[in-house]
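Archive maintenance. Older records in this collection stored only the sequence; we are now back-filling the structure field for every entry so that each record is complete. The fields below show one back-filled record exactly as it appears after the update. Entries are processed alphabetically, and NAD(P)H-dependent FMN reductase is next in the queue.

ARCHIVE ENTRY
Title: NAD(P)H-dependent FMN reductase
Organism field: Pseudarthrobacter enclensis
Length field: 185
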Amino acid sequence: MVKIAVVAGSTRPGRHSRQVADWVLRRARERGGATFDLLDVADFNLPLLDEPMPPSRGNYQHEHTKRWAAAVNGYDGYLFVTAEYNHSVPGALKNALDFLYAEWNNKAAGFVSYGSAGGIRAVEHLRLIVAELQMADVRAQVSLPFATEFQGYAAFTPSETAEQALQALFDQLISWSAALQAVRA
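Back-filled structure field:
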């Protein structure tokens, strides 16, 4: 069975990342076709990248890195839930990605983003980042603008359009996650 992690990528107080990630996880589990878990970057308390060796060497020195690597390694694909901060990726998510290398290789990546413009610029940056980590990103994505998906900036209320887009994203992410198992074998 394909295993996919929904990665909540913001650690900011008052973040929407968990609301959105919880919605994604609920819908994923209702849909089936894979096993889905939540990886919340906030739960790992990663400092700014402090490993003395490049992650591509796989020689992790710190316990927080080893714990993060063990959590990430067991999945076939990742669905990144990202905010858009200043036209890019939250620093905590970029840092979490930068801590590891081989654990991300030859796995699938999908994106659910949110922000004033739906987070699309953050996803543009994430696509470049995951490519360097040797991940295959799927085309389908979910973009959640504050104006239409969040009532008064606080309560996340996904539209029918977002619900449909999420199903298309699941279809592609599950397929690619399964296909890449053969590449890693």
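Update note: The longest helix spans residues 160-184. The chain has a mean pLDDT of 97.
Entry marked complete.
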